Amino acid sequence: MQFYSFFLSFFLSFFLSFFLSFFLSFFPFFFLSFFLSFFLSFFLSFFLSFFDIGQYLGEDLQVSGPANGAVGGSVVFAPDNPPSTSIDTVQWNFGSTPILTAQSDSTLIASAYRDRVSFDINTLALELRNLRLDDSGTYRLTVIPSAGDLLTGETSLQVFENITNVRLIGPEESLIEGESSANITSEGTGNITSVQWMKDISPLSPSNSIIFSSDYRSVSSSPVQRSDSGEYKCTYRNPVSYETAKISLIITYGPEDVSIKGQDVVDSGVRVSLSCSANSEPSASFSWKFNGADTDVTTDTFTIDQTDFTHSGDYICTASNSVTKRNASQKHALLVKEIITFCLIQPEV
Hints:
Oligomer: single chain
Strand order of the largest sheet: 1-9-8-3-4-5
CATH topology of the largest domain: Immunoglobulin-like
CATH superfamily of the largest domain: Immunoglobulins
């Protein structure tokens, strides 16, 4: 192989010298420049002949990678282009540490790997089992053919701990819109290479009110808004595993937008219902006043079974939120029309 490498290098260098000399021919000293170029080409070819340039001719082994593995798992290293010629010796090394040496009739495995590796002499594949973190590094394959130059190839392995025990820690106290701050912190074990946050079904992104820590392990919102209510998910990932934890936040607010639905004017003797509603989280409780006086009605509906003139007046509904300690009211005026009965008396004749 060294002879062919030398010949190829010399041949290419000779033509480079010729073309260089041709261009220099337009200047004086044509023959001097030609012989100087020829001498340099010969020296370069002679020098390169002592080195293995098989990698430039595509003859070195190509081992796929880099590879990722999980602690306790397994991985297989194999060349994509195993040599087609007969092989005298095969070696697999981890860095400078021998793993195994194999020949056609025997395989010698280092004691540190004896229970963890398998080798296929036909494909030169090495299987490494029960992976540990300290298995991360460079793996080198060396093949000595029965005839020809030594062939080499290498790849790398990165071993990761599986991600486990991911959980989210959120606020325990009630969160009030416009007043409270919320912080969600994530925890987990394993080699974590990326962290992803989701709110409901959408990615959670930084904003004026949403702030992430520098390591992306926690997120905060201040002050909270009702739009912050929802399910938060945090996913820890690495190349071999992932795990997701969830937590829900409920932002309390209100009551607001109190309204009363019902008739304004009714005849005497009919049934009337006034219905009160409010926008609130949690749902509001209700109380009613009639003409400034408290009533015993504590539901969202005030019902009068049979009206008379005494039911005319102002009805006030008050909505209250037990968490925000806020309340809001709305007034509704009701007029009950009396039916006047006329009696016609005729004089006696």
